[in-house]
Amino acid sequence: MAFKRWKKSPSKRPPKKMWNNEEMKLIGWCLNKNIGVGISPDWKHEFIYWQIDISINDKIHTDPKRYSDDDVLDKMYEYYKYYYDKYNKQ
After folding, report:
1. 80/54 Cα distance (integer angstroms)
2. What does the pLDDT read at residue 58?
3. Across the chain, what does the average pLDDT equal?
4. What pTM, to 2 d.p., does this model score?
5. pLDDT in tens, 50-90
């Protein structure tokens, strides 16, 4: 009996960053308020680009711009900071 070998789909590892305590506090606040920011590979272009998806109360919005490995996590944090500043009224 012969087995068919399936082609492996392309994969890409996300960039990594060590978040400090202040950043984690801000990100945690957003997640508790159902505001999430995530990254996913942009498969339509070269493997070096990422797209950013923003989820607010189960509605997903995608940033039209694409970011490189070096810039994507910084931009992701900018989005968290923006929504924290916008909705955190104390």
Report:
1. 9
2. 87
3. 86
4. 0.81
5. 999 999 998 999 999 999 888 999 999 999 999 999 988 76
From CA 54, how far away is CA 30, in angstroms rounded? 11
Bridge partners (DSSP) listed for residue 56: 35, 59
Alpha carbon 86 to its chain's center? 19
Q: The tokens 């924290």 sit on which residue?
A: 84
Q: How many CA atoms lie within 13 A of 62 on its CB side?
A: 10
Question: Which residue shows structure tokens 């392309």?
Answer: 10
Could you please report the per-residue DSSP string of 2-35?
--PPPPPPP--PPP-----HHHHHHHHHHHHTTE
